[in-house]
Amino acid sequence: MHRSAGFRHGPLHVGVFVASACLVSACFDVARPPRLDASPPHDALGPPFVLSIAALDARGQRRSLDAIPRMPTLQVRTSAPLSGDPEPVMLLRGRDDDALREDLAAAPLRGPTLARVVEVTRSTDDDGLRLQPTSVLEPGEELLVVVGAWGRDPSGRALGMSLVQRVRVDGQGSGGARAVDAWPPDGAAAVSPSLRFAALRFDGPVEGLARGVWLEDAEGHRLGGVAQPARCEALGWTRGACAVLVPDDDLRPATRHALRVGAPLVDATGAPVPAFAAHFTTAAETDTEAPRLTPTTCAVDEQSLEGLCVRAEDTRLVVRLSAGEAARVQARTGLVRTSAVAPRGEATLELAPLPPDTPCDVVLEATDAGGNTLRVSLAVRTTEPLATLSITEIRADPAGPEPRQEFVELENHGTAWVELEGFHLADAASSIGDPVVGPHRIAPGARLLLVPSDFDPDDTGPGGRDAPTPPGTTLVRMDRALGNAGLSNAGEPLFLRDPEGRRVSSAPATPAPREGWCTVRTSADPRTGAAAGFDYAPGGVCSPGR
Fold first, then answer.
1. How far apart are CA 112 and CA 53, in angstroms?
2. Region of poorest pLDDT, from 6-10, 236-240, 243-247, 377-381
3. Is residue 483 within 8 Å of 425, Cβ to Cβ?
4. How far apart are CA 242 and CA 237, in angstroms?
5. 3 within domain boundaries
6. Does residue 292 lie in a domain region?
């Protein structure tokens, strides 16, 4: 099948196909496509066809289809206006596949395709049809501009072919922005009337802070104070674009307030930043007390120190706390420091990199909205070098029998052999987990599978949907099931611990398992169990032992 300019076409008469392919290529070779009235006479070309697809930002600047803005205008130029029921030109979520292209061959559309349709506003001008999503798109999201084969021109001639063009939303911060965090956090109560400052974090650059960010009282009156750019790291946020607003006066006690975002604030593409409001209520009087730590249940591989849960590794310390109110927290030892915002009072701080087997004096501070600060000092020691094992792939919901065909893949990311006897795999922070019994060694760079005792490496499930296990893959057979009666299809964390009970790697509960799919480590950190460190394998395809 011939493809041109990134389009995927369905069946089409050869003569018409060649004409349309050449015209599409020509359109992409020039900086600005010719206007529709400059196109060849439609009668000479037969059925209608698509000339080009382009993405514009709010300023009218053309953007790469691999980095469209989060509030784009998608411009679809055709040789003649197209109509049909449903509208033949649509924007869909998700990826291209055979089922979609089969569905686009004729109306009506099936339910799964209809569920993927993105709501848009439509308009036409001399440059063709314009589609504008009614809501902000997600960074990195993949979508499809599709044209159904049932589309007809004013004379009733059908397009006769479908077209699918993949587009991707810019995920690097230059494709748009919206407010994602606030201080005080939305819903906060008993905030001191002597608020030191209010702050916002946006997930991309913004312009117009002075008038586009403000504090208001319960009656909607704007209060004094001008928002200015600020370093996110100084506020406790690790990335984004941040702003701080210092009130001119103390706030009214026992009153509902709001930190708002609105016009004329725009993002880097010139699009309006979506409206945002974080509501909070002030206390009846000025707060003069520092935050208090609340009791926290520590995991089996954490120490309870000064009301905190502390986990020591060879190159990092992980401190977990729970305070009785929203707080900005920071921890430091020597030249290493880290910070976070705890909107519900709960935070996990990682201090790294640190040298192994070394004493560390740690100072932790938690500061509330009124500027009151709690300070805690800790004396902790990092461990000697830990085993170089990492959880790299998980199949929690096989297409075949459960829990028999579940597996957890481990990789030795170090330079020495690792003896596995005495290691434990757990699906709860409070449990040491199930032990690895018997002598098992894993070579540097090698992978192996932890599997239930009755795992069948040759069972690929119904329709062969479970990826086969290569013959050379080492299987370490655990108890009758992994974890507590098998890995949960709703998602659960996993913890790999060494014979001394120290955590050497973990995996998060998200993303939630899908039948026949695997989740894989995407983070370069071989130990982290943070949610951002795992994702679905490409296309969901498992690769056990590879």
1. 25
2. 6-10
3. yes
4. 9
5. no
6. no
Same domain flag for 186 and 275? yes
Of 213, 214, 533, the residue nearest 394 (C-alpha): 533
Closest CA to 152 of 84, 85, 77: 84
Measured CA to CA, the distance from residue 461 to residue 395 in angstroms comes to: 13
With respect to residue 294, please indicate whether it lies within any of the assigned structural domains.
no
Q: Do residues 206 and 162 share a domain?
A: no
Q: Give the 3-state DSSP-derived string for 285-304, with helices as H, strands as E and coil as C.
A: CCCCCCCCECCCCCCCCCEE
Share above pLDDT 90 across residues of the chain, in percent, rounded to a whole number: 84
Structure-token pair, residue 24: 């599409």
| Number of domains, the chain | 4
pLDDT tens, 351-404? Answer: 999 999 999 999 999 999 999 999 999 999 999 999 999 999 999 999 999 999
CA–CA distance, 436 with 91 (Å, rounded to integer): 50
Cα dihedral 477/480/485/486 (nearest 10): 40
Note whether residue 330 is domain-resident.
yes
In this prediction the pTM is 0.80
Spatial distance between the Cα atoms of 430 and 302, rounded to a whole number of angstroms:
10
Specify whether 70 is located in the same domain as 192. no
Same domain for 193 and 51: no
Last residue of a domain, one of 381, 409, 425: 381
Q: Are residues 198 and 155 in the same domain?
A: no
- Residue 239: give the domain boundaries: 179-282
Domain final residue, candidates 381, 403, 419: 381
**93/145 Cα distance (integer angstroms):** 9
For residue 182, name the pLDDT band (cuts at 50, 70, 90): very high
Distance, in Å, from the CA atom of 306 to the CA atom of 88, rounded to the nearest integer, reads: 64
How many other β-carbons are positioned within 10 Å of the β-carbon of residue 185?
A: 18
Burial class (CB in 10 A: 0-12, 13-18, 19+), 60: exposed
CA dihedral 539, 174, 348, 394 (to 10 degrees): 10
Q: What is the dihedral of CA 272, 278, 279, 282, to 10 degrees?
A: -120
- Measured CA to CA, the distance from residue 400 to residue 509 in angstroms comes to 21
Residue 12 pLDDT greater than 70, yes or no: no
Q: Does 40 have pLDDT greater than 70?
A: no
How many angstroms separate the CA atoms of 92 and 63, rounded?
Answer: 19
Whether the Cβ atoms of residue 183 and residue 211 lie closer than 8 Å to each other? no
User: For residues 505 and 424, what is the distance between their CA atoms, to the nearest angstrom?
Assistant: 11
| Residue type, position 390, single letter | S
Distance CA 363, CA 375 (A): 7
Do residues 351 and 308 share a domain?
Answer: yes
Nearest to 167 by CA among 72, 91, 65: 65
Residues in the chain: 546
Which H or E element spans position 327?
A: strand 327-333
Give the C-alpha separation, 409 to 491, whole Å: 16
pLDDT at 45 (0 to 100):
59
pLDDT digits (tens, 9 = 90+) for 439-473: 899 999 999 999 999 999 999 999 899 999 999 99
235: region left, alpha or beta (phi > 0 left; psi from -120 to 50 alpha): alpha
CA 308 to chain centre: 29
